């Protein structure tokens, strides 16, 4: 997917970098596989803001993606590669032999007309979904389950891929894109290949307005607020934070403070990221 740039005839086109969408083969989604997205504006049922900086944006439809791939042994044909406004990866529209249509995350290199399959007997080929115990060591994978049967939860973003390092004693050791090495049940399913749209990291929105189209509103700096609204607020003129270290709006340390403590899943982490 090449990245498209423009001559700087306006301030916004000076830095903007779009996708040319040459990999998209179908403009409109499958009507049976979309739902209307209800906007919250970052507010809960009481009308209170629980997620700052959310609001506005263009209307979007939610694509119903099949992360379980539980039609084992039934061959499916790739009918189209589609755009999803709510995720970085592309979607592939599959049609099974019995007429059922589903969406999956499109791996890099998947072409329209390809035949895919899932299940323990599926060959380890691009786009096929199979248990970790049958995945060859060193092969790139994505859409990885954490709990068998729950559906894929890890490695779903554009350009992401993990690697099976070993499989022993009922668990597979997987190197995740962050560098973390984690043990996952060998009966969990994963999809062969790297997630497509690998050039997504090279895109540039180019202007603040395009961020607003995506539903993001500006977030004000803490030092510009009053002391009731943020720990960094108050003071005459431009003043320093006045604290031993920066804090979040809720008073928690913003740097060097561990937010993950004593989680039951720690025993499955062989090596933490960044170590």
Structure description:
This protein has 275 residues and is mainly beta. It has one domain: OB fold (Dihydrolipoamide Acetyltransferase, E2P). Helix content is 2%, strand content 24%. It has 1 helix and 17 strands. The protein has a 7-stranded antiparallel β-sheet, with no helix packed on it. It has a 4-stranded antiparallel β-sheet with strand order 7-6-5-8, with no helix packed on it. A two-stranded antiparallel sheet has the order 1-2. The longest helix is centred in the last third of the chain and has 6 residues, at 208-213. It is globular and about 70 Å long.
Quick synopsis:
It is built from one helix and 17 strands.
Which key phrases capture this entry?
single chain, 275 residues, mainly beta, OB fold (Dihydrolipoamide Acetyltransferase, E2P), seven-stranded antiparallel sheet, four-stranded antiparallel sheet, 2% helix
Total count of strands: 17
Indicate the mean pLDDT. Answer: 94
CATH C-level category: Mainly Beta
CATH homology superfamily name: Nucleic acid-binding proteins
Structural class: mainly beta
The CATH topology turns out to be OB fold (Dihydrolipoamide Acetyltransferase, E2P)
Sheet with the most strands, sense and barrel status:
7 strands, antiparallel
Tally of separate domains: 1
CATH architecture: Beta Barrel
Strand content: 15-25%
What global shape is seen?
A: globular
Helix content: under 10%
What sequence of helices (H) and strands (E) makes up the elements?
EEEEEEEEEEEEEEEEHE
Task: Please give the radius of gyration in angstroms.
Answer: 22 Å
Number of helices: 1
Low-pLDDT windows of residues: none
Strand order of the largest sheet: 9-16-10-13-14-15-17
Q: How far apart are the first and last residues' alpha carbons, in Å?
A: 33 Å
